[in-house]
Design brief:
The protein is α+β, with helices and mostly antiparallel strands. The chain has eleven helices and 16 strands.
Length: 401
Amino acid sequence: MKKKRAIIRVISAVIAFFAIIASTGERVYAGGEYNPENETETTAVSSESFGNTLKVKSAILIEQGSGTVLYEKNPDEPLAPASITKVMTMLLVMEAIDGGKISLNDEVAASEHACSMGGSQIWLEPGETMSVEELLKATAIGSANDAAVALAEYVSGSEEEFVGLMNERAKELGMTNTNFMNASGLDSKGHFSSARDIAKMSSELLKHEKIKDYTTVWMNTLRDGKTQLVNTNKLIRFYKGATGLKTGSTDDAGKCLAASAERNGLGVIAVVLGAGNSDDQFGSARTLLDYAFANYTVAKAPVSETAVYVKVTGGVSDSVIGKYDLPEEFIVKKGKEKELTVEIESDENVQAPVKEGEKIGKVSVRSGEETVGEYILYAAERVEKMNFFNAFVILYGALLQ
């Protein structure tokens, strides 16, 4: 049996050797190096069942982890975001804390500029000191403009420098319809964002679990109880599973809200912009959240025990093992949790050499007829191109067996 396999390998090597000599074609690569960022976004599911009841200019509903869009209404329209701006302010503060640049216990002295903000505030006095944590509470719970600017100055030295960081981070997050002019959200020419962009930065902020210690608080105090903080987000008190996140209200923006909530492992974010009054602001957000929890749930990713092999032409091996990475969970419509399947489609004409990590196909995760995610199938190993030397090594090794 061993002798038979050796003869087959010898014949294969000889055929490959002559194929190399006869071949004059250029190398063809199936794709570039594997990069998780190249994974396509999950498919959006849109519903118009309550669209006309949302009395807002713009809205979006997404699943928090994957960014799957469950509903949208003018999601890319640039609008004044008001104090929802502070989501980015808080995100940069949390990143500065996690990065070791600042700490929650650091004392911050309020500048005259920070104290001059007006609007929602905790009435900081120039030179008054508060900890980063106290200012973060004031920003998250009370939407205090003076506290937000004091934090911005502490992180970057000035609000102007901090705004530069805000816009830089927005670009990194793919917020293509956003431009910040300040850290507080006060109306300013050229200061705008969109519902989709706000959802993106809200999702990023919620990756910092510590922020929920502040965004989920209904009431708190500062200055040894002398200053009371009441959350501007009514859903924190009245909506089951609410985790935040930020309200906004100015003359230009109208009433706005980025609302987040979690139930039974499903986290969602609803953003509404341009409501005419508080009832429409909170009512629209509640409608979106209710829709998500009534119609969707999370399901474990399907696991395949079968190895994936993709045919390779002109290599020392006639195939390469394919691998793919899936999220642990997917959002699906209720009742279809057990219908998740994986479909693998390999690229045609995969030619050696094949690099480890090279794209060699795609993987689709489906729930019934609906595609809920597409991901890259990549090579788990390297496959060398067959050449004279490699053919000789294979031929020699086969003869020794």
